[in-house]
Amino acid sequence: MVRRRGFAGAGVREITGAAGVPQGSFTNHFASKEAFGLEIVDRYFADLLTVVDATLEDPGRPPLDRLRAYFDAISERLEERGWQHGCLIGNMSLEAAEHSEAIRVRLTEIFTRWREPFARCLREADAAGQIRLDVPALDMADFLLASWQGAILRMKVERSPEALRRFRRITFATVLSPSA
Fold this sequence. Notes:
CATH topology of the largest domain: Tetracycline Repressor, domain 2
Distance between the termini: 43 Å
Radius of gyration: 18 Å
Largest sheet: none
Number of helices: 9
CATH superfamily of the largest domain: Tetracycline Repressor, domain 2
Shape: elongated
CATH architecture of the largest domain: Orthogonal Bundle
Structural class: mainly alpha
Helix content: over 70%
């Protein structure tokens, strides 16, 4: 329901109706809709970390291959949803961060944690001579995440994978190129 209608657009009545539970169940489990928002962000990120573990944290692949594998895995998930719902973390960042300090803080914590495996891959790629990092790895990781989120936003608007393909093509040909 939150994916389809957005966090603000999904009412508690609609959420409980879609879940097939009485509305009172919501208030028994969550002190507020904001608490529910925190829970869905946490659960979404926990699921996303399974992709991170299978790709970015895979020691059997060279660092740049791990980055490519991550973007491929996420692209496959987005394709399964018809290129329309995007990333819940990105969606909540756009929608709820301005209205909920608790959600904004949690999203900041998530982005801080999320960039770490990217930064490790970038450091390893630099050490292996696959790329040359001229900026701190954490800054480059933040740049990649922000650029990727922007590509996902365009993908949602266009209902097409082209923005994701363009992100990959340009990123690996320029920013993550051995000659960059």
